[in-house]
Amino acid sequence: MGGLSSRLQGDAPLRERVLLRAPGAPASRWVEVFSAPSVARGAPARIVALRDVDPAARRELEQRFVLEASKILGASLDLDRTLADVGRLVVPHLADWFAIDLVDDDGGLRRVAVAHVDPAKVEYAWELWRRYPPKREDPGGPYAVIAERRTARFEEIPDALIEQSVPDAELKAIVRALGLASSMCVPLVARGRALGALSLVSAESGRRYSARDQEFAEDFALRIATAVDNASLYDEAVRARQAAEAMAAELTAQSRAVESALRAMRDERDDAIARLGEAGGAVR
Asked: For the whole model, what pTM was predicted?
């Protein structure tokens, strides 16, 4: 561990497997260590992520993650807040970058959540979204993933892929500077409808997304899609109730107006009859 500690102090990214034994643990475990220099709140920092590669331990960690995610997704129907909380859970355990895009009524995409350990980079991601929104023809992008309802996974993001898939020179330089290492874009599908896409990106940690990671991400995306669908159904129910209440209020107002008009007509009729009676008595 001493050698690993010294390597973690360096400036170079690190990715290696080491045998570690936690205090009080009955045995050592193989752990994959990812580390890379970064900046947090304007100061030099280093991101370190550990992944237990022991199958039984990994399953246990995944179950804990799913349990915590399920609690968050079921805690509120406030979709923006819920997805922001999910992002804080995902980063940095599953990804260095997290984003969710939802389909608008006109078929466009609306970004509703972004997460990164560095708040400054979160703001940067929002700015990039505004300046360079995804295009429908982007291979492996959210539009393609939603249309095909199929996950796009890049276990590695070599420079050749960036050169091929990012035509804009300025954006290409930005992508290279971010040091993206691996990515997954997963469709959000519920009740047969494609609602959006979940994007998970590895950068500073250097992790590589495997087929097993994709399977887990797809299960996670299904849970997110269900929460999004439930929130949408709730919003529809609220709007329907508000419309019904508005219609009932309008009908009530119209009914009162009609009653008022009828009352006025009756009063005018009674006044006219009374005047006729008075006029007849005067003639006699």
From this structure: 0.67
